[in-house]
Amino acid sequence: MIKFNITYPGSPSNMSGNSELNNAGKIIFRGKCVIRTGNRIVVGYNAKLDIGEGVIIADKINIGCFTSITIGDRTRIAHRSQIFDNNYHYILNLKKNTVKDIHKSVKIGADCWICNSSTITGSIPNGTIVASNSVVNGKTIENIEDNCLIGGIPAKLISTGLQLINDPKTEQKIAKYFNENNVKIVDIEQL
């Protein structure tokens, strides 16, 4: 089931407002998906937006798809982020009298977490965590491995070997452990 324009209690600033969907291409949903409020999703003529199983698109997200954007299974996109496969404006190089193509497919792997206010215009592998307020353009993060943390403007590799815990039962166990014990870190095997 696709849940569209869903208000989520406790969202930052109690975000609301209708989501907007303009589709002149193809949108593929690979399974359940939640799209919250205030989003703008544009899919251009002959473009393809492919959304994986269990994807959560939070509030105030802007997606501009004019070639191809793929969002992998269980990926979370936090509020006020944006994903574009183009830069919207052609630029004439006056010295060479040439114009470059402005379109580039974007592939976001499975189990990624794009933190709030980030801009994605390049592809990222499975399990990537994008720090808040980052700009991922693809040029500075080529050949990074799965399960890493990237961030900055432009985004750079910060750390490897990290994974978002994306299971509510496990999250509850961890929260309970921290609430009941005076510690700042726990071995996951202790839970």
Characterise this structure.
The chain is built from one helix and 20 strands. It has one helix at 168-180; strands spanning 2-6, 20-23, 26-29, 33-36, 40-43, 48-51, 55-57, 62-65, 68-71, 76-77, 82-84, 92-93, 98-99, 106-108, 113-114, 119-120, 129-130, 135-136, 148-151, 156-160. The longest helix is centred in the C-terminal third of the chain and has 13 residues, at 168-180.
Strand order, largest beta sheet: 1-4-7-10-15-17-19-20
Number of strands: 20
Largest sheet: 8 strands, mixed
> Distance between termini?
32 Å
Dominant shape: globular
Strand content: 25-35%
Structural class: mainly beta
Mean pLDDT: 92
Q: Low-confidence parts, pLDDT < 50 over ≥5 residues?
A: none
Alpha-carbon Rg, integer: 18 Å
Helix content: under 10%
Q: What is the H/E order?
A: EEEEEEEEEEEEEEEEEEEEH
Number of helical runs? 1
**Oligomeric grouping of the chains:** single chain
